[in-house]
């Protein structure tokens, strides 16, 4: 437990300091090699106390001539140059009087329930009016829990950005660290506390930090701590590389018309420069396009670095964009690339037809209209269309005649059968009457 505490202490000292790589401290080495039992342990606890003090000083230390206070609390300003019991006067720069409700107690100025308007420069003076001490009072709020989001533009690094949840009106700094959660057996044997280090902040990009050399299949815990002169607040964020991977947009998008292909456009692009070209981590792409005059997009997905649009509108300018995503569908689609535009070539037949129509229209407009009525109507119908209509009418008439003939035959057969049925009883009665009239001996 002591050795574990020693390594943990060194990580505590190293992590808040950006850019410092943890290594064994001399005190830890003294503990491990000290010939006197217990001396190393005493030195470690002494170092821990000193480290705690050194870490606490920057947060509570106030700049010389500056005092910080929390809005809504009572703030007391001390007169450093005054002698005990001697009367002093307090003044506020740029104001004829002190804030309402303020009071002087034992040479100190007490400002009850201070507000943001109470901030300013205050000075205390002796009986002769000489300046004894001046202080700049800055008021604000405690830090809130920051909002944090992380993104990996490739599988080797990830970056996080944050914004404050509370406007504190005070100078603020951030301590950014991370710890790897999923460890291999070798890593666990080497460091039981896990792999820890700083998330490096870039002064040119405030509000962001980057972890270099991350592993795609690992998970991490990020700690973003917001610190101001009144206190600190932090957020812990668990992330996995697969979930936050989001490539940069593809680059070098080019759209070109294809000669003698009125409805086709050839589109090509390149991998984003931030994505390492490794065979194990490929990208797939999503292409969207539309005519400029339309609002709805057509979308095509591909794994290639080029695509041919086959349903473009001839003669209309089209706008095209492309985005990328991990080939195995991890993470999110990138933002859309910058737009590229092109116009498919026009169909030669269509162009010739339009030119002919235009020439005919111009000629008809140039001619004067005739005053005499045209005795013969103009027939605009097509001969082929006439033939089709006649054939259709002939087929229809054939079926109608066939139906009428079938119905007639059925009616005739029914009437004939009905006539035979009426004739049979009459013949039977005639035969019976004839038999009755014959002599009995003839009948026998």
Mean pLDDT rating: 77
For the sheet with most strands, the description reads:
4 strands, mixed
How many strands in all?
A: 22
Q: What is the H-and-E element order? A: HHHEEEEEEEEEEHEEEEEHEEEEEEEHHH
Tell me the overall shape.
elongated
Helix content: 25-40%
Relative strand content? 25-35%
Alpha-carbon distance between the termini? 144 Å
The helix count comes to 8
**Order of adjacent strands in the largest pleated sheet:** 1-7-6-3
Helix/strand-derived category reads: alpha+beta
The stretches of 5 or more residues where confidence is low (pLDDT under 50) are 1-61, 357-362, 364-382, 428-432
- Report Rg: 49 Å
Topology, element by element:
Elements (H helix, E strand, L loop, with lengths): L1 H13 L11 H8 L5 H22 L5 E5 L4 E3 L11 E4 L10 E3 L2 E4 L8 E6 L5 E10 L6 E5 L5 E7 L9 E8 L4 H6 L5 E3 L1 E2 L6 E5 L6 E10 L2 E10 H4 L6 E7 L7 E6 L12 E9 L6 E5 L3 E4 L8 E9 L13 E3 L5 H19 L16 H55 L2 H4 L1
Parallel strand pairs: 1-7
Antiparallel strand pairs: 2-5, 3-6, 4-5, 6-7, 8-9, 9-13, 10-11, 10-14, 12-13, 14-15, 16-17, 17-20, 18-19, 18-21, 21-22
């Amino acid at each position: 437990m002591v050795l574990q505490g020693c390594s943990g202490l060194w990580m505590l000292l190293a992590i808040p300091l950006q850019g410092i790589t943890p290594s064994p401290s001399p005190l830890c080495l003294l503990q491990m090699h000290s010939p006197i039992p217990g001396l190393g342990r005493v030195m470690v606890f002494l170092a821990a106390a000193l480290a705690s003090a050194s870490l606490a000083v920057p947060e509570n230390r106030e700049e010389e001539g500056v005092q910080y206070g929390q809005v809504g609390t009572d703030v007391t300003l001390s007169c450093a140059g005054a002698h005990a019991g001697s009367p002093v006067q307090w003044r506020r720069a740029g104001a004829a009087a002190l804030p309402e409700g303020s009071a002087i107690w034992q040479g100190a100025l007490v400002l009850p329930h201070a507000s943001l308007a109470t901030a300013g420069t205050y000075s205390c003076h002796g009986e002769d009016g000489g300046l004894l001490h001046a202080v700049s009072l800055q008021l604000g709020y405690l830090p809130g829990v920051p909002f944090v989001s992380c993104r990996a533009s490739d599988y080797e690094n990830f970056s996080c950005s944050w914004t404050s949840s509370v406007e504190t009106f005070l100078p603020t700094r951030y301590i950014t660290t991370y710890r790897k959660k999923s460890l291999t057996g070798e890593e666990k044997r080497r460091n039981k506390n896990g792999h820890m280090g700083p998330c490096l902040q870039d002064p040119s990009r405030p509000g962001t930090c980057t972890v270099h050399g991350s592993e795609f299949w690992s998970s991490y815990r990020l700690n973003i701590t917001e610190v101001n002169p009144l206190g600190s607040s932090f957020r812990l964020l668990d992330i996995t590389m697969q979930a936050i991977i989001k490539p940069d947009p593809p680059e070098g998008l080019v759209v070109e018309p294809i000669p003698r292909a009125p409805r086709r456009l050839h589109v090509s692009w390149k991998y984003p420069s931030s994505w390492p070209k490794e065979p194990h981590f490929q990208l797939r792409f999503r292409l969207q396009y539309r005519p400029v005059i339309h609002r709805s997009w057509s979308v095509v997905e591909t794994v290639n670095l080029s695509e041919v649009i086959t349903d473009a509108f001839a003669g209309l300018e089209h706008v095209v964009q492309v985005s990328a995503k991990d080939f195995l569908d991890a993470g999110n689609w990138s933002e859309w690339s910058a737009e590229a535009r092109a116009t498919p070539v026009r169909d030669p037949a269509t162009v010739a037809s339009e030119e002919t129509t235009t020439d005919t229209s111009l000629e008809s407009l140039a001619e004067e209209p005739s005053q005499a009525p045209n005795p013969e109507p103009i027939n605009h119908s097509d001969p082929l269309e006439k033939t089709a209509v006649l054939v259709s009418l002939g087929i229809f008439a054939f079926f109608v005649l066939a139906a009428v003939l079938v119905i007639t035959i059925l009616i005739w057969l029914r009437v004939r059968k009905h006539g035979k049925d009426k004739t049979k009883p009459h013949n039977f009665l005639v035969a019976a009457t004839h038999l009755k009239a014959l002599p009995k001996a003839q009948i026998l």
